[in-house]
Amino acid sequence: MKITGTNITLLAVPLRRPIRTSFHNFSHAYTVFVQMHTDTGLTGMGWCFAFEERKAAALALLAEDLAALYVGRDPRAVGDNHAVAWKDMNFLGHAGASMIALSGIDTACWELAALAADVPLYRHLGGAATRVQTYASSALWLDRSIDALTAEALDLMADGHRAMKVRVGQADFMADVERVRHVREAVGPDITLMVDANQAWPESVAIRAGREFEALDVFWLEEPVFYTDIEGCARIAAALDMRVATGETSYGSAAMKQHLDARAADVLMPDLQRMGGITDYLNTCALCAAYEQPVSSHLFTEASAHVLAAQPHALMLEHMEWWEELFTDPLVVEEGAVVMPEGPGLGLTLAPDALRKFAV
Ligand SMILES: [Mg+2]
């Protein structure tokens, strides 16, 4: 079995609920969609993205460059193929755009390996969990009025969610606390609530805000401080009884090890594209297990679900609806869990008109 070539298509995928955090204000996910073809007729999918078209176009060029290295190789040799790409990336570096570009290629290669074995990817990875606990994350943005915020929280419950994340990170952190208090009152005590500050706060504010969130039974405080401030994050995690989650903005398992060594947080949430795909995400999962820490995910629900379904120490899959429209069979959420698809590979069917409909 050999890889014969790769199609890379740049898409502008509109966000049903445009993203608005302490950091972001965007309406589209400019997506680099990868289809990796083989001489057996199987095609594997992967994707990466940026929030702006020109940045995504740059990612597409880098992905095409890496994809050429895979031609003629056996997709089932995922680790060997990854090693070839890893070596090639040395000059641009194992972070930033080159790492993001690799993720679409590496994910497509993993899907091909699972397709060749005719099993769902999570089973190919050794997983047995047919459901993965998840939390709704593509809503409850910072621009919502209190009424809109609580109405949206109830909508998410009606969609089957039992956990959800509220964006915080305002300079007036007590205004954030009030927003979360209203959501807590609306959803009741049995719903799991997280908060995400998107790196907005100084350490002292994060600790004060965290104490308020603890009183509202918040499950975790995410990215309280700038992502490179690993020691500061560790001090926050030590000061608070509640969980602190971080890691989505850092690249590769080497950075995750730095977080683990520093005990920077209680939960790491690797981002599939900043891991450069599934290969190094799995390395991070193994590190988390060795350090007795749970592992979560960031964005990329469809592929991350397979990774987490194969990790006994997984804690909460981030559920984003952003790419649902690309597929005829998007993931199903029931009683707060993603139901793992049982089709081979990622278990997703690309909608016949998706690439044309969203092409840039
Ligand atoms: Mg976040």
Q: Would you kindly provide a written description of the structure presented here, covering whatever features stand out?
A:
This protein is α/β, with parallel strands linked by helices and 360 residues long. It folds into two domains: 3-118 and 352-358, Enolase-like, domain 1 (2-Layer Sandwich); 123-339, Enolase-like C-terminal domain (TIM Barrel), CATH 3.20.20. The protein is 40% helix and 21% strand. The protein has helices at 53-70, 78-88, 96-117, 121-124, 146-158, 173-187, 203-215, 230-239, 252-261, 278-290, 301-309, 354-358; strands spanning 3-20, 25-38, 43-50, 131-136, 163-167, 192-196, 218-222, 243-246, 267-268, 317-319, 332-334, 337-339. Strands 5-6-7-8-9 form a five-stranded parallel β-sheet. It has a four-stranded mixed β-sheet with strand order 10-4-12-11, covered by helices on one side. Helix 9 (252-261) runs parallel beside helix 10 (278-290). The chain is globular and about 60 Å long. The model has no long low-confidence stretch (mean pLDDT 97). Magnesium ion binds at residues 196, 198, 222-223, 248.
